[in-house]
Amino acid sequence: MAAPTSLSLKVMTFNLHRDVAGATDEARNAWENRKQMCADLVIKYAPTIVCTQEGMKSQVDDLQSLLLAGGYQQFGVSKKGPADPGDEHCAIFFDTAKVERVDGGTFWLSESPAVPASVSWGSRIPSISTWATFKIKGLHPPGFSFQVCCVCVCVD
Questions:
Q1: Can you give the residue ranges of every domain in the chain?
Q2: What is the pLDDT of residues 62-120, one digit of tens each?
Q3: What backbone phi and psi angles, to 5 degrees, belong to 42?
Q4: CA 52, 58, 61, 67 torsion: positive or negative?
Q5: Exposed/middle/buried for 55, CB within 10 Å: 0-12, 13-18, 19+?
Q6: On the chain, which terminus has fewer CB atoms closer than 10 Å, C or N?
Q7: 132: buried, middle or exposed (CB in 10 Å: 19+, 13-18, 0-12)?
């Protein structure tokens, strides 16, 4: 079998925007009214990788449930770290039929990037970057990998 001469990957970025349930001026934008539409867009365009920002744990979980049948899994932690999953996430969803995650992690955009929830330079809110390394399935010869970095920055 001849090796492919080119490779194409679809990557999508998606700001989930915090759930605004209870905010009367934005009630139509509440997550309950948007979650199926978000999942439908991912399913329609079938990206290999979906990088999300500003998703609360419940939103990331909802999206995972809606995309599970499509073969997507997610990776990422909250801005406060794995011990406190209640804050915003910077999650990466990936199509398990197309790629395999071989490594990944999160770092904080601060002077102490390995310290969860760390802030620096006058910030009050932590900002994070979730990264992952993937291997492409079905590629001959096997072994080609690539890295994706998804950044969630809140400038305050």
A1: 11-152
A2: 999 999 988 999 999 999 998 888 888 999 999 999 999 989 999 999 999 999 999 99
A3: -65, -45
A4: negative
A5: buried
A6: N
A7: buried
Residue 155: count of CB within 10 angstroms of its CB = 6
pTM: 0.88
Structure tokens belonging to residue 129: 């970057």
Alpha helices for the chain (secondary structure H): 31-45, 57-67
**CATH class, range 11-152:** alpha beta
Cα distance between residue 39 and residue 103, in whole Å = 25
- Of 54, 49, 51, 48, whose CA–CA distance to 34 is shortest? 54
Alpha helix positions (H), 25-73: 31-45, 57-67
Letter string b/e over residues 101-131, b meaning 16 or more CB atoms within 10 A of that residue's CB: beebebbbbbeeeeebbbbeeeeeebbbbbb
Using the structure block, give the residue that is written with the tokens 């329609």. Answer: 44
Strands 49-53 and 11-15: parallel
Nearest of 91, 88, 129 to residue 107 by alpha carbon:
129
